[in-house]
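Many introductory courses stop at the sequence. We go one step further.
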Amino acid sequence: MDVALASADQDGLRDEEPLRVIVADDDALARRMLRDVLQAAGIVVIAEASGGREAVELSHFYKPDVVIMDLVMPGIDGLAATRQLAAKAPGVKVVILTSSDDDDIGIMTLRAGAVGFLSKSVGLDALPRALRGARDGEAVVSRRMTMKLVEALRRQREDGAGLRPIRSPLTSREWEVLDLLCQGASTDDVAAALVLSAETVRSHVKNVLRKLDVRSRREAVEAAQRMRQGLLADELAA
């Protein structure tokens, strides 16, 4: 898999502190392989985690530059752990490394706060440079996913559907729910799309209605449209 990275430092020669990484994977053999590859490249593996909860706790304690996170783990999975780190430790970069090569799942992880999504089929020798790129503010994704993101931007509707205000009473998860409601999704549709239970979706919808001070899903959709129209007006006036 080709990885799309900015070409700021192609030869990898750097005069700075070593990259500090936490490896999170429930497979002990996979952790050892990753540790050996990264340490051989001069990257410091400061800790290993066998689950998402442990990855979050270790990240709060050690404050690594990057967490390389498996997606499927027992207890708190990689996606939930990424959301927690994005909310509570935004300075820690998360790169998802998973056996899945599904671009839609990859985009979901980016929305959750990851800066990278790589399939485990990528050559391990490409990882050190990819993680250094993540530390330096680069997106670490396949070229195919980059094109998919470009296509998504091209499809963005002129009415602003999908836009979100920078300041909003809604959380990122509540906006994900509201975005789907704006597309006409039912409770079950939202649950399937976001991998949530129907009861959790109903709870999010109640919070959306309360925070937007509306009484129905239709009114919530209308409120979202008004906010987005305001954003578009601001962009046109800028």
